[in-house]
C-alpha cells in the first residue's frame, strides 16, 4: 500500500520535486546536529552567561519571526520571471556560506558579535527556504492534485522529524570526537547538496499570468469602493437621483484612472509594476485578516506561542553545569522529542486529517 502511495506521489509531482522537498525539511531537522555545537561554543569557548547566550540565540532566530515578508517578496517580485527557485537558491546560499566561514575562520567564530551576525544570516536563509518550499507545495496541490495536500505536508514533517532524530544522535556523538569547527564544516554539506538539487527542479517563467495579475488589481482595490457606494445608495431610495449618479461617476472615474495607471506602468519600469503588485498583495492580506475564520485561529496560535517563554538556552546551562549531563546524553534525550513529532505526524495523517480543527484541538 505504501509502495503504491509513493508511486502515485512520484507520478504526480516528479521525483526531483519530492527529493527537494524532503531534503529541505530534512536539513531543517538536522540543524540540531550543528546547533548543539553552537551551544557549547557559546558556553565553553566564548564563556557567555546564560542570559547572554539566550540573547544571542533570540537575535539569531529573529528571521523566523518575519516569515510572511519572504512570502510576499517571492510572490510579488519574481526574479527572471520566476518566483520560487531563484529565492530558494538565494536562501540556500545564505544557509551555506555562514557555516563555511565560521568553520574556517577561528577569529570570527571566537567573537560573540560576528557569531551572532553569521548565525542570524544563516537563519535568514533557512527561514526563507522554509517559506519558499511551503509555497511550492501549495502551488503543486492547488488544482487537481489537492488530494495529496495532506500527504505532502506529512512527507515534509516526517522528513524534518527524521532529520532531527539523526541530527540529535550524531550531534552529541561528534562533539565527543570532533572539534566544533569540523562540525560546522560537516553540516555545510547538506546546504551544498540542496543548492545542487535546485537545478533538478524546473519552474515555468511568468508571462501572461503576470499580465493577468495586473489586470485584476482594480478588482482588489476597488471592490469595497463599489460596495460602499451601493450601501450608501440603498437606504436613501427617496433621495435625489443626482447624488447616485454623482457617486457612480466618481467610482468609475477612479476605476478608469487606475486602469490607465496600470496600462502606463505595465510596459514601463519593473519598480512600478512591483509596487502595484505589492499594494494589491498587502490589500488582499489585510482583507483576509479581517475575516473571523482566519483572525481567530491566528490569534489563538499567536498567543499560545507568546505565552510560553523560550528557556532552551537556560535549560542547556542547567543540564550541563548543574546536572553535569554529557553531550551524547543530551542528544539522545532530544531524540524523544523528534520521535514524538514523527508519531504525531503519522497519527494526524492516519486518523485526524479529515476531522475539524476544533475537534482535534479539544
TrEMBL record:
InterPro entries: BT1 (IPR039309), MFS_trans_sf (IPR036259)
Transmembrane segments: 85-105, 299-318, 330-348
Keyword Lipid metabolism attached: no
Keyword Glycoprotein: no
Membrane topology: Multi-pass membrane protein
Highest taxon above the source species: Eukaryota
Cross-referenced SUPFAM superfamilies: MFS general substrate transporter
Keywords on record: Membrane, Transmembrane, Transmembrane helix, Transport
Stretches the record annotates as Disordered: 228-250
GO cellular-component term (any): membrane
Localization (cell): Membrane
Pfam families the UniProt entry points to: BT1
Position of the signal peptide: none
Family: Belongs to the major facilitator superfamily. Folate-biopterin transporter (TC 2.A.71) family.
Full protein name: Vacuole effluxer Atg22 like
Amino acid at each position: 500500500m505504501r509502495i503504491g502511495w509513493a508511486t502515485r506521489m512520484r507520478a504526480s509531482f516528479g521525483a526531483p520535486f519530492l527529493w527537494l522537498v524532503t531534503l529541505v525539511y530534512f536539513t531543517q531537522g538536522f540543524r540540531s546536529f550543528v546547533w548543539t555545537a553552537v551551544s557549547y561554543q557559546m558556553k565553553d569557548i566564548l564563556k557567555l552567561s546564560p542570559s547572554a547566550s539566550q540573547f544571542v540565540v533570540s537575535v539569531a532566530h529573529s528571521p523566523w519571526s518575519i516569515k510572511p515578508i519572504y512570502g510576499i517578496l517571492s510572490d510579488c517580485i519574481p526574479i527572471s520571471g520566476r518566483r520560487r527557485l531563484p529565492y530558494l537558491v538565494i536562501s540556500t546560499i545564505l544557509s551555506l556560506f555562514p557555516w563555511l566561514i565560521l568553520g574556517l575562520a577561528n577569529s570570527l567564530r571566537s567573537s560573540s558579535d560576528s557569531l551572532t551576525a553569521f548565525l542570524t544570516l544563516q537563519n535568514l536563509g533557512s527561514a526563507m527556504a522554509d517559506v519558499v518550499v511551503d509555497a511550492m507545495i501549495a502551488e503543486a496541490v492547488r488544482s487537481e492534485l489537492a488530494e495529496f495536500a495532506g500527504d505532502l505536508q506529512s512527507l515534509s514533517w516526517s522528513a524534518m522529524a527524521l532529520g532531527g532524530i539523526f541530527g540529535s544522535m550524531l550531534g552529541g556523538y561528534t562533539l565527543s570526537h570532533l572539534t566544533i569547527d569540523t562540525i560546522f564544516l560537516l553540516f555545510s554539506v547538506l546546504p551544498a547538496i540542496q543548492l545542487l538539487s535546485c537545478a533538478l527542479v524546473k519552474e515555468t517563467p511568468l508571462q501572461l499570468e503576470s499580465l493577468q495579475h495586473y489586470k485584476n488589481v482594480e478588482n482588489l482595490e476597488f471592490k469595497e469602493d463599489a460596495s460602499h457606494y451601493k450601501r450608501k445608495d440603498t437606504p436613501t431610495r427617496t433621495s435625489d437621483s443626482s447624488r447616485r449618479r454623482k457617486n457612480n461617476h466618481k467610482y468609475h472615474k477612479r476605476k478608469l484612472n487606475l486602469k490607465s495607471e496600470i496600462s502606463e506602468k505595465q510596459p514601463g519600469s519593473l519598480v512600478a509594476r512591483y509596487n502595484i503588485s505589492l499594494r494589491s498583495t498587502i490589500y488582499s492580506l489585510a482583507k483576509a485578516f479581517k475575516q473571523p475564520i482566519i483572525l481567530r485561529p491566528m490569534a489563538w496560535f499567536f498567543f499560545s506561542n507568546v505565552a510560553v517563554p523560550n528557556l532552551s538556552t537556560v535549560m542547556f546551562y542547567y543540564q550541563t553545569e548543574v546536572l553535569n549531563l554529557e553531550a551524547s546524553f543530551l542528544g539522545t534525550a532530544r531524540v524523544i522529542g523528534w520521535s514524538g513529532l514523527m508519531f504525531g505526524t503519522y497519527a494526524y495523517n492516519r486518523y485526524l486529517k479529515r476531522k475539524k480543527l476544533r475537534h482535534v484541538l479539544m
